[in-house]
Write a structure and sequence with these properties.
heterodimer, A: about 110 residues, mainly beta, 7-stranded mixed β-sheet, 4-stranded antiparallel β-sheet, about 0% helix, B: about 110 residues, 5-stranded antiparallel β-sheet, 11 strands
């Protein structure tokens, strides 16, 4: 079956702009989580969505937001981009029952200039 | 607090040798642990997992050991191959009500001939 699909793969944005990233989970998976990966901070949890509801949220400013649709696809948005937002954004898909395997997409590489 | 740490940032091994990657976690209430492998330019790939009610689990060439007394997790790779070269992350999930992963900092495994 198809894996986790993230689009776009690469993005270059200017400071102050906003960006929307998309994630399509594995068919049948109802939970989508987002992570930010940087060389300095490693993999950090952004938020988790299950059945269109945010189930958990990490310690990121309000400029970072997300949502999940009825088909389990998810988007995350970052407004007023800062240079420090440059990172690899990863989406993970899981069944959603809690404490289960999470499968990752290839990520979206965001560069803010 | 919520943290998962790694003892060694880089591990170099000779092809054919066994590799051991270690991880310390801080939350004794964690229910579920996963090891991921991340190759350059790719998202993390699931390797093996273990529940908190187990102390050992084996896969193909990999074994995960869990020592709850000292809150320590290890990944053993038998007969290490060049294709095993990657960054390895341990991650924990705190409860069955979430799929939120808390990642360690990662260990880079380098395999030389």
């Amino acid at each position: 079956k198809a894996g986790v699909t993230q689009t776009p793969r690469y993005l270059i944005k200017t400071r102050g702009q906003q960006v929307t990233l998309s994630c399509s989970p594995i068919s049948g998976h109802r939970s989508v989580s987002w992570y930010q990966q940087t060389p300095g901070q490693g993999l950090q949890f952004l938020f988790e969505y299950f059945s269109e509801t945010q189930r958990n949220k990490g310690n990121f400013p309000g400029r970072f937001s997300g949502r999940q649709f009825s088909n389990s696809r998810s988007e995350m948005n970052v407004s007023t981009l800062e240079l420090g937002d440059s990172a690899l954004y990863l989406c993970a898909s899981s069944l959603g029952t809690g404490g289960t395997e999470a499968f990752f997409g290839q990520g979206t590489r965001l560069t803010v200039v | 607090g919520e943290s998962v740490g790694l003892h060694l940032p880089t591990l170099s091994v000779q092809e054919g040798d066994n590799s051991i990657i270690n991880c310390a976690y801080s939350n004794s209430a964690s229910d579920y642990f996963i090891w991921y492998k991340q190759e350059s330019g790719k998202g993390p790939q699931f390797i093996i997992d273990i529940r908190s009610n187990m102390d050992k689990r084996q896969g193909q060439r990999v074994t995960v050991l869990l020592n709850k007394t000292v809150k320590h997790l290890s990944l053993q790779i038998a007969a290490t191959q060049p294709g095993d070269s990657a960054v390895y992350f341990c991650a924990e999930i705190l409860s069955y009500n979430t799929d939120k992963l808390i990642f360690g900092t990662g260990t880079r495994l380098q395999v030389f001939p």
